[in-house]
Amino acid sequence: MNASPNPIELSFERAASRCADLTPLVYQRLFNEHPETRAMFRTQGSELVRGSMLALTIEAILDFAGERSGHFRLIACEIASHDAYGTPRELFIAFFTTIRDTLRVLLGDEWSPNIARRWDQLLVEIGAFAGIAA
After folding, report:
1. pLDDT confidence bin for 42, thresholds 50/70/90
2. 57 pLDDT exceeds 90?
3. Residue 1 domain flag
4. What pLDDT is recorded for position 43?
5. Which DSSP string corresponds to 94-113?
6. Is residue 75 part of a domain?
7. How far apart are CA 118 and CA 85, in angstroms?
8. What is the pLDDT at residue 133?
9. Going along 2-133, which residue ranges are E strands?
10. What pTM, to 2 d.p., does this model score?
11. pLDDT band, residue 14 (cuts 50/70/90)
12. What is the pLDDT of residue 44?
């Protein structure tokens, strides 16, 4: 299998070779860095919700960083949805940063300057898409 030239996709591919499920790692980091988010998830059945939310977010990230064929629009839908829940936009965007930071730790030495630059750029683009100035 050839590695993807897209640094964002490459970071997920490399992470998948090291970890079967990013969900616990991402949410542990999210809860540690933003303890207020823990209360946003119900206690019963939240693992399924978390896994689904992360999977949809990864699909949207990959599309946003790549072809923008449509999946990235989920970000706009979820912004509106989370606005209705009362989630601050900055906290909504923090989830993307949490994913990036989880991947960076998981990849260790394979987290290249090219991957880092592209993730930084992507986070700025997603923030702008969400109406948050960098």
Report:
1. low
2. yes
3. no
4. 63
5. HHHHHHHHHHHHHHGGG--H
6. yes
7. 30
8. 59
9. none
10. 0.89
11. very high
12. 57
What are the CA-CA distances from residue 53 to residues 22, 60, 110, 128, 133 (Å)? 12, 11, 26, 21, 24
Identify the CATH number of the domain in which residue 36 sits: 1.10.490
Task: Supply 45's token pair.
Answer: 């059945």
The enclosing H or E element of 9 equals helix 7-18
Residue 2 lies in a domain: no
Which domain range does residue 89 map to? 7-129
Count: domains in the chain: 1
Distance CA 59, CA 97 (A): 15
Burial environment of residue 22 by CB neighbours within 10 A (0 to 12, 13 to 18, 19 or more)? buried
Contact 129, 60 (CB under 8 A): no
Does some domain include residue 134? no
Q: Tokens in use for 125?
A: 């683009």
